[in-house]
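Schema walk-through. Below, the input block comes first and the output block second. Nothing else is stored per chain. Lengths vary across the set, and this one has 71 residues.
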Amino acid sequence: EESACRRWSMTGFDLLTAIGLLLVIEGILPFAAPAVWRDGFRRMLELGDGQLRFIGATSMLGGLFLLLWLN
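--- output ---
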């Protein structure tokens, strides 16, 4: 049986793979619909700091729960 430490370890390859996947996903909307992306970005600029922090925290927690669920 694998130790908990070994099961949760991440190699440099895994990290680069995750960053590459993130960049591909992040680039889909600006590539496919630049006007929609620009409008959404413009609306994000109008949000207050608290609203942006809430969106960021929600995004991080969602990603964390997804990663925990996958493992």
